[in-house]
Design brief:
Spore Coat Polysaccharide Biosynthesis Protein SpsA, Chain A, 14 helices, alpha/beta, nine-stranded mixed β-sheet
Length: 315
């Protein structure tokens, strides 16, 4: 094993990895192997499994990882993560969250992510997400746009030019300083999604910084169907309607959306011009889903549940 500076190694030794899962599928062995190949191992890895039926929980146990069963009916992005922190991070100083489809790209991914905490102001850090090798050009562009090759740190002062993008953070591959989480009350437990952005905003308001570590890489991308795009952005609209204070405090993301569309068009013209009509349709579905989600309070619950991607939220 390579010899790293003691400060970097000690970060890993004081970090717990928590992974919410539900039938992760055929890439799960790759996920587990990538964790075991880390040059510096975390204090422990805990799988928060929502009653998987594909043998993934047993596969994790066979590799020596602890598995906690979580009721699928009671799963909630924020609540499940917060319960994981409360139950499994005793003796730790940092917690790392991975989603089941985010595969560490190299043996130094965890070490590099945790190096963000060399800056004592940093309360949370997230890594760079690279598209999976089989990602569609549309899905690949989304990762390349949101996760550039340059690292950066943001504080509350950056809201004047970044707006709501200041709060950007992804729990697909993110680490938190536990003392900072305890200070702001941890994850909100009643959100449909966006628990990472919601927490990042509260950390910024408390005077902390958020770090993007571009040298900490995972493979993670989604090739959503049109129906899934609609549902995902419906839920995003629900989130923003319920958490209006985020836009009121940080500003809107309208300019970011325009920049994304322009970037996507240029990317597809170079890579796969035939996908331009599909990209336009997808963006229309996103916009329709988002605007519809903002009016969820005025529709019957059966309709909201039908439009939503996270249907368990409406139970």
């Amino acid at each position: 094993m390579a010899n790293f500076p003691q400060s970097s190694k000690s970060f890993c030794e004081r970090a717990v990895v928590l992974v919410p899962t539900c039938n992760p599928g055929p890439t799960w062995p790759n996920f587990l192997e990538a964790i075991q190949q880390q040059a510096v191992q975390p204090l422990k890895v805990v799988i928060l499994d929502s009653e998987s039926t594909d043998g993934s929980a047993q596969a994790a146990q066979a590799r020596g990882y602890q598995v906690q069963t979580v009721s699928r009916r009671r799963f909630n992005h924020g609540r499940t993560r917060q319960q994981g922190i409360e139950q499994h991070t005793s003796g730790a100083e940092f917690v790392i969250f991975l989603t089941q489809d985010a595969i560490l790209a190299d043996p130094y991914a965890l070490r590099n992510l945790l190096q963000a905490f060399n800056d004592p102001q940093v309360a949370a850090a997230y890594g760079r997400q690279l598209p999976h090798h089989n990602a569609t050009p549309i899905a690949a562009h989304a990762r390349l746009f949101n996760y550039p090759p340059q690292s950066h740190t943001v504080t509350l002062q950056d809201k004047t030019h970044k707006g709501i993008k200041t709060c950007f953070l992804s729990n697909s591959f993110a680490a938190y300083r536990l003392s900072a989480l305890h200070q702001v009350g941890g994850f909100a437990t009643d959100l449909i999604l966006g628990e990472d952005m919601h927490l990042a905003a509260r950390l910024l308001l408390a005077g902390h910084a958020i770090r993007y570590q571009a040298n900490a890489n995972v493979y993670h991308s989604h090739s959503y169907s049109l129906r899934e795009e609609l549902g995902r952005y419906f839920d995003t609209g629900v989130f923003h309607a319920q958490q209006r204070w985020l836009i009121e405090t940080f500003g809107s993301a309208a300019n970011e959306g325009i920049q994304f569309i322009r970037s996507e068009q240029h990317y597809l013209i170079k890579k796969s011009a035939y996908l331009l009509p599909e990209a336009l349709l997808r963006n229309l579905m996103k916009y329709a889903g988002f605007k519809t989600g903002q009016f969820h309070a005025h529709m019957p619950q059966w309709l909201a549940k039908g439009l939503s991607m996270h249907k368990g939220y409406w139970v």
